[in-house]
Amino acid sequence: SQTIHQWPATLVQPVGSPLSLECTVEGTSNPNLYWYRQAAGRGLQLLFYSVGIGQISSEVPQNLSASRPQDRQFILSSKKLLLSDSGFYLCAWSRGGTNTGELFFGEGSRLTVL
Amino acid sequence: DQQVKQNSPSLSVQEGRISILNCDYTNSMFDYFLWYKKYPAEGPTFLISISSIKDKNEDGRFTVFLNKSAKHLSLHIVPSQPGDSAVYFCAASDPGNTPLVFGKGTRLSVIA
Question: Between A and B, how many residue pairs show a Cβ–Cβ distance under 8 A?
Answer without folding.
Answer: 63
